[in-house]
Amino acid sequence: MFEQIDQKKALLDAKRPLPKYTVKSLREKLLLEWTYHSNAIEGNTLTINETKVVLGGITVGGKTLREHLEVLNHRDAIHFIEDIVQMDEPLSEWQIKNLHRLVLKGIDDEYAGVYRDQQVFISGAKHIPPAPFLIKEEMEQLMGWYEQPETTKIHPVARGAMLHAIFVRIHPFIDGNGRTSRLLLNLELMKEGFPPIVIKVENRLAYYEALDKAHTEKQYNEFIKLITKEVDSSLELYLSAVNNAK
What we know:
Fic-like fold, Huntingtin interacting protein E-like protein
C-alpha cells in the first residue's frame, strides 16, 4: 500500500534542501487549504477566499465571530504543531490538550483543553463515544498504544491514520475533536518528513464512512487507504513544485 508514496518521498528527500521560496509558497497554500477544508467539514460557511481574507486580518461581513475565530485558531494550532516538529518533541497528552485549547480559544474557553464531562453523540455515525468517566483511561490507553515499540514500527501514514481514528472514537472533548484529530494526523506525518495533507470537504462522506467503519468494526484499512491517497496528492504537489522551480 505504501510503496508508491515511499518512492515519492525518497525522490523528494533527494531534492532537499528544497528551494526556500517554493517551500514558503507551498506552506502558505497548504495552510490556507488545510484551514478552509478542516473548518468546512465541521460546518464553517466561509469560502476559501473569505478564509484567506480572515487569515490576512480582515473581517468578513455577514459571518459569525465563531467562524472568524475558527480560522485564526486553526492557523495558530498549525503554528503550534510546526513548533513541535521543529523541536522534535514526543507526543504527549499535554500537547493534545494544548492543541485543543488553541482550537477552541475564545469559542468555548470553559472546555478548551479540558476533557468532556458530558455524554456526546456523533451525528450520522453508528459509533457512540465512551462515557465521560472513561475518557481519562481511554486517553491513557491511546498514549500507551502510541508509545509501545510495536506502534513505532507501523508505517507513519498508517500510524497517523490510526492515531486520528482512535482519537475520534474516544471523542475526548465537547467540541473541536475533528479539527484536533486532523491536526494530530498531520503532526505525525510532518514529524516523519511527509508534507501535511488536506482532507477536502467534498470527500467528507467517504471520510466519515471510513471513520465509522474503523470505530464500529475495528477495520482501519479503508481509512488508511483514504489517508494514503491524500499523502500521495501532497507528495505530487511538492514534487511538481520543486521540479518546476528548476
